[in-house]
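Forum: Protein Structure Q&A
Topic: Joint prediction for protein chains with partners

I've read a bunch of threads here and the consensus seems to be that you should model interacting components together rather than docking separate models afterwards. I'd like to see that in practice. Below is the full input, 537 residues plus whatever partners are listed. Could one of the regulars post the assembled result?
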Amino acid sequence: METLGNDFPILNRPLADGTPLVYLDSASSAQKPRVVIDALSECYESYYANAHRGVYQFGVQIDEALEGSRERIARMIGAERPEEVIFTSGTTMSINLVAQAWGRSQLSPGDEILVNEMEHHANLVPWQQLASQSGAVLRHIPLTDDGRLDLEQLSECLTSRTRLVAVTGMSNVLGTLNPIGRLVEAAREAGALVLVDGAQSVPHAVVDVLNPQVDFLAFSGHKLYGPSGIGVLYGRRELLEAMDPFLCGGNMISEVGLTESSWAELPAKFEAGTLPVAQAIALGAAVDYVLGIGFDEIGRIEGALLSEAQQRLAEIPDLVVHGPAIEHKGAIVSFSDERVHPHDMAELLNRKGVAVRAGHHCTMPLHARLGVVATTRASFALYNDSSDIDVLVDGIQYARKTLRRD
Amino acid sequence: MSDELYDELILDHYESPYHRGELESPSCTHTERNPLCGDRVQLQLQIDSEQRIQQAFFDGEGCAISQAAASILCEHIEGKTLEEIEEFSAAAMLELLKVQLTAMRQRCGLLGFKVLKTLVYSHDAASGASA
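Posted by a regular:
Agreed with the consensus. Here's the joint model:
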């Protein structure tokens, strides 16, 4: 059968022992299509140079490719201007950039930052750090028992002191899709900004930063079928212009004296040092690839996989799938088996060629809320198909038989 | 069903652990966690006046490897002197498990061992201080 998996060289090579690879860890990092690998190679083989520095042929060519990539990313997320797209090393750096470059100058003791229990450590720890640096207070939106934000309690935690709501578009463990529109509306009324951690949500559905209008959107290239080491921070231009730089050094300055300097325009102000330029260009190729398939088609593929996986796992006795019903979530299925620890589950699934993640997935507070120390997570992407779920289910049965000898 | 990693020895100890539980009045107790996966192993020793381990008990939760290894460890160290424990190496511990662990799973297999080493060093320091 012609599936999109054919576009991904790594998915068409058996593992060392000859077993075919069933890759169900795309929420951790997605595999790369041939077009992305080619874009990287082409850059290094035919026109590589540093960006924003060379007046020679390749210097000009690389700048065109880099800025072309920025424009495509800006279009994909609905940004009004390409300079609102800042290249970073990934979601983590994007969030740290906002926490430090916006938060350090804007927050006063007693101001509040609103997060919640499902956040990835990358959208939690930078705010804890900022709170301790600024005297701001971290507050949390509680979760419902099925792992959604409890919006009934929003009015209690979103107050006139709230300056920022930091929320994930999609939980990396439960798959929960958060109601960004409602949060933006409530935050506006309270006079707070909204930062969306789009690491999980951006690869799976259309994101339009203007509708609902978010203030910051952070995401990673490597989960969007692009290279590792590159990510994006979108910020509204007025906010970015008012912010001080995060990292200081080359490229981000306008004029440098011995004692003081002035900052470059956007986006250079936030792109100190040499960018991972080939990766940034190849991320543009990933964006083209994804848009070429279209988010409607991606949603159809992943929706069908989620519905089938959820149903088939629910049929297995003593196995609990965490998180809300499928209409509230994306294509991630995290589960606990009464007698097979996630680490053993992942190890035994690996015997069948199935790659899943086991552990707390950088969400220790969420696991505490779920009352488990670890879970096993299967996450789906556009290249998976129904046969992958067959292998997963067989693998789970194999793990259960291996560890349950009675 | 047999698996290269989850062989009889590991599964026997996982299902019917040796000395899982707590001592009434241990000479020393220590707990460690593997922060990546949340595995937890507590080890309690009863050490006699000749610095010999009379009894070793473990408790905790985690994967089959970490829990079975802690059980195998308890069985192995009873009757040994602290001096002998100081000689006991990580490689020897891994050998006791009789299966090949990847670097990632060695952290599970060595969690109890790490607790033991911490216990013995702190016990040494404590008896050194009181001597």
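The CA atoms of residues 33 and 40 of chain B lie 4 Å apart.
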